[in-house]
Amino acid sequence: MAQLEVDNIRTAYGLSKVLFGVSLTVEPGEVVALVGRNGVGKTTTMRSIMGMAPPQEGSIRWIDRDITGIPVHHVAKLGIGYVPEDRRIFPELTVWENLDIGRRPPMDGGDGWSEEQVFELFPDLKDIQERKGGVLSGGQQQMLTIARSLMGNPKLLLLDEPSEGLAPIVVESLRDRIQMLKTGGLSIVLAEQNLDFVLFLSDRVHILEKGEVVYTGTPAELRDNPDVQTKYLTV
Amino acid sequence: MLAIGVEAMSMLSNPTFLFYQFMNSISLGMNLFIIATGLTLILGVLRVINFAHGAFFMFGAYVCWSTVTFLGGAVGSFWLGVVAAAVVLGAMAFVIERGLLRYLYGREHLTQLLFTFAIVLIVGDVAKMIWGTDQYNVPYPHGLGGAVDFGFAKYPSYPLLLCVIGLVVAVGMWLALSKTRWGRIIRAATQDREMLAALGMNVPLVYTGVFVIGSALAGIGGALAAPRVAVSPGMDATIIIECFIIVIIGGLGSLWGSFLGALALGFVTMFGTVIFPDWELVLAYILMLGLLLWRPWGLFGHEEEEPH
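The joint structure predicted for all components is written out below.
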């Protein structure tokens, strides 16, 4: 059975419907990408999984239980980490304090992520521990948001547009770090506009259009299908 | 008339009087700070403008009077009264937050304002049912009825102790907020509560905790004020306005802002009434207006973004 099973969810903000029956599954250690243009429902899918925008219909199963509509902090405690699009670090807290807020021991015991390990993965953060989150560069903030989530020892990371607004060289370095996390066994749902980033990292790609999954394939299949790319991804 | 009276001039040239007013300003300021810091904490985290904070202050003063009276003014009864005020107000706050306020967080400010105003009326009436409309006096605690000799002048012990307690509360709060994990969580809650929840933190529990602590501070402030004022109905109305002035001067949600704001209000009150007696009632507002013209977000505040 899949680790995460999103089944036919429909989510609306008030009267404005965003998702019209999205389904996806994530196996342990898998990177599943959600791609598509702006406003097709990638972020809403993640917010639905996280419990921030509970779906009106459909269900979300995590490992062996139904987590549809449970409080956000319960979802997080069950091992799902969320790295939002706009990063949302705590601007008035230092880098170290931001990491400390995220700290939670692993659910199944054992050693989890420590600051040292996080700094090994993101060495840039090590020298700026005392700096306030609000003054960091975009790249540093993105690293910090991921690092902060890792401190909670998630089994699945929801990564929303991690490469957005970052310089190409930073994007490349970020991509390699995420690859390392994948190699370490972390499952990831990745929403991205940057197709190269997606093709490099993911095991499966879902294309969303107007709140529905319209295409599912492997990165290789998508790479060799320019028609689909033009139809759903070209701006 | 704005002219400084001859009488005021002669008073201000008297060093003993100056010292006395100086200390009075700090003492009043510190008492106000203890109350206002609770209000600003609640405002910063819950984003609820709690009009009932003044009523909580009044209730704290009554609880202290009852404790002292019940124990026949025994040694230590006053300090037990302070603890009792904190416990009673904390418990009341717990019930109010869990039972009612919690359902209003998503609503607009006007609804919350009306709700806290209802609490003002209810708490005020409950106080009248329990204590009537009489005025009570709480004596200075044992051993603090005298004065401390500074060599050049004497100053009464109890108001002096208030200065110390205010400072201890300020430093204690600062340490708790900046050096403990709970403090970091509270500060994070003022910045982005949804993200805090996404990191596995039980935000509603943080809210309850902050409302309880903030309200307990109002109760403690009321108990500590009891020996310096007449404990009577209506004492909630003045204090809530003073607290709002302090919070606005200091910047919403700022600990040191409310500390400086409380001191500023203490000085304006104590010296203003001597120098411009005719303007006594408006001086605090002039202070607030002047400061807002200079810094619209208060001393330590910053431009508000819509919080998540």
